TrEMBL record:
It holds the Pfam family Response_reg. GO terms for biological process: phosphorelay signal transduction system. Residues 18-126 form the Response regulatory domain. PANTHER family: RESPONSE REGULATORY DOMAIN-CONTAINING PROTEIN, STRESS RESPONSE REGULATOR PROTEIN 1. This is Response regulator. The modification 4-aspartylphosphate is found at D65. It comes from Natronomonas aquatica. It comes from the Archaea. The keyword Phosphoprotein applies. InterPro entries: Bact_response_regulator (IPR050595), CheY-like_superfamily (IPR011006), Sig_transdc_resp-reg_receiver (IPR001789). Keywords: Phosphoprotein. SMART domains: REC (SM00448).
Length: 127
């Protein structure tokens, strides 16, 4: 049975989307869980390395901060793409989107976060 896709929140999906948020700020991860947890299955990772450990075919869309200690979002995205994943990737960063990035992504959002723009990106890019 194909998945029902709609931007109308009154219409339920056949399956729940799984969204991964990756950021080194625990407060932001908490906000993502609170804001989106009732609509999607929300997973979080506190950095690039943890994101790689959690990443699999179950993820429908992932959002990465670009600058994190240890492994940056850019490095994690390159590793995920290098592993052959075609999962939609979003970037949520304070770094201007005009800055050189060198990674493949589907949507670039700048901080401070905008709840509606993130939701729109999920609805538009997730399978």
């Amino acid at each position: 049975m194909p998945e029902l896709r709609t931007s109308d929140p009154s219409v339920e999906r056949a399956t729940e989307l799984t969204v991964l948020f990756v950021d080194d700020e625990p407060e932001l991860l908490d906000i993502y869980e609170i804001r989106y947890g009732s609509e999607y299955e929300v997973l979080t990772a506190k950095g690039g390395r943890e994101a790689l450990e959690r990443f699999d075919d179950h993820i429908d869309i992932a959002f990465f901060d670009r600058r994190m200690p240890g492994m940056s979002g850019d490095e994690a995205i390159r590793a995920i793409r290098g592993d052959g994943y075609r999962t939609p990737i979003g970037i949520i960063s304070a770094v201007d989107s005009e800055a050189e990035i060198g990674v493949e992504y589907d949507v670039y959002l700048t901080k401070p976060i905008d709840e509606d723009r993130i939701r729109e990106a999920i609805e538009r890019h997730a399978p």
